[in-house]
Amino acid sequence: MKPSANITWFQAQAACESSGKRLPSNAEWQAAVVGTPDPGSDDGTTDCNTASAFNVLPAGSRSACKSARGAFDMVGNLYEWVADWVPRATTCGAWGSGVSPTGDDQCLASADTAGEPGALMRGGSFASGSLAGPLAIVGSPPPSLPGVTIGFRCTR
Question: Does the reported pTM lie above 0.90?
Fold first, then answer.
């Protein structure tokens, strides 16, 4: 099954509710991603889908992109909507500006409180390259924005 892409936060929430589930909170998503390898180079076959395919792949097709809790593709493939909203981010950086052990996306600085809030997305996508990772977090998109690099998963 291919993950759903090009979907707004509102559509993701409705799809989860239709199946008797909900979008995971940011904290739940972070707990579920633990143990997923931080991507290095994408080997195109087993590592997390962060650069080589440049399109969405069937869920679970990359065997090495699995968390300690057994969740596949939480890094790369698609950014994932989570339930939380924040003041909309206007700039992006990297955790610790390259000083920390990860260069994952971190788009929460200089929040803009005008207009729509930002809905959080986690993990990075097939187009993120080295910015995809277990700590990747983006708060810049409004919840009404669909995107070919944005998907979701549901939880109970």
Answer: no
